[in-house]
Amino acid sequence: MLDVRGLSVDVGRGAQALRVVRDVSFTVRRGEAVGLVGESGSGKSMTAFALMNLFPSPLARVAEGEVRLQGRDLRGLDAESMRQVRGAGIGMVFQDPTSYLDPLIPVGRQIAEPLRAHGRTDGLDARVRELIELMELPQPAQTARKYPHELSGGQRQRILIAAALAMRPALLIADEPTTALDVTVQAGILQLLARLRRELDLGILLITHDLGVVAETCQRVNVMYAGEIVEQEAVGPLFAAPRHPYTQGLLGSILTPRSRAHSLFSIPGAVPIAGRWPSGCRFHPRCPIARPGLCDVQPPALLGSGLGEGADRCHLSAERGSANAWTTMAVRA
């Protein structure tokens, strides 16, 4: 359904342009949730904005690549055609509902706004009530008349999801939809997304820094680091036997049922500043097994099945397999 090939994003113009996303390729099928995971600054949100051609800065632009939705080339569309795709083809949910809901307008009117923008005004009130009920919110008619401040954080996020789905899009992009919510509310939002995916045959691209969210919600996952995808895999195999040292480090830094068998640790250093990437493998300054003369010189390719599973960007994958780079480091020490 969604097919992204070789997507690159630049910020700036001419010689001053910085490539903040490079050669990103992935797919999302109908009825499937795919995760895009990584630390802050890895390029996740910029990738999402590129799919919508809706950047937060006028200096950002798609420099290369293809974005196809249900076979339609989105990069070839003019501004008006792309506006029609937003909402009708792709819906997007952002991480902070208070920034996207107008405090002076009842939430029912805000849910209806995409319908009005696309000229779908027949049966507007009934559709709004239907969407509120779909979000599992009580008393749809009364809820529609409430203002954002009268709702909880989780309820406001459900209102944003309702607005994003008003035009029945094939794809929902959810950018950190559970950030700043407490654990029980977060679980409710994730369960809602899973139900919507099944019932509406909805494709979901879930952008998050939280691997626990990916484990609960997604079928496949793309791990991003420094503007590139470094590993693609089905969720089960990725959690059982991650291959890229960065993915292994991420999983080693979170609490899981298997954490008792080893000490939690953090990956040293930080994600490089966008556009000022290290030479060679972008992870090599933080990697415990980086090989001088190779990893710091030659950029690795993303090698694997080519089907969005079993691929990683590491020079040493063929000889290491899924051996844990951080355990290897500890043994050598």
Give the SSE map.
Layout: E1 2-11, E2 18-28, E3 33-37, H1 44-52, E4 60-69, E5 72-73, H2 79-88, E6 90-93, H3 97-100, H4 107-117, H5 124-134, H6 140-144, H7 153-164, E7 171-175, H8 183-200, E8 203-208, H9 211-217, E9 220-225, E10 228-234, H10 235-240, H11 245-252, E11 311-312, H12 317-320, H13 325-332
Parallel strand pairs: 3-8, 3-9, 6-7, 7-8
Antiparallel strand pairs: 1-2, 1-4, 4-5, 9-10, 10-11
Helix pairs in contact: 4-5, 4-7, 5-7, 7-8
Low-confidence stretches: none
CATH architecture of the largest domain: 3-Layer(aba) Sandwich
Task: Label the overall shape.
Answer: globular
- By CATH reckoning, the class of the largest domain would read Alpha Beta
Number of DSSP E strands:
11
Q: Give me the strand/helix succession.
A: EEEHEEHEHHHHHEHEHEEHHEHH
Mean pLDDT: 91
Distance from N terminus to C terminus (CA atoms, Å) equals 47 Å
Classification by helices and strands? alpha/beta
Tally of structural domains: 2
Proportion in β-strands: 15-25%
In the sheet with the most strands, the strands line up as 6-7-8-3-9-10-11
- Biggest beta sheet attributes: 7 strands, mixed
Number of helices: 13
Give the radius of gyration: 21 Å
Helix content estimate: 25-40%
CATH superfamily of the largest domain: P-loop containing nucleotide triphosphate hydrolases
CATH structural fold name of the largest domain: Rossmann fold
Task: List its traits.
11 strands; 333 residues; 2 domains; 7-stranded mixed sheet; transport; 4-stranded antiparallel sheet; alpha/beta; 34% helix; Rossmann fold
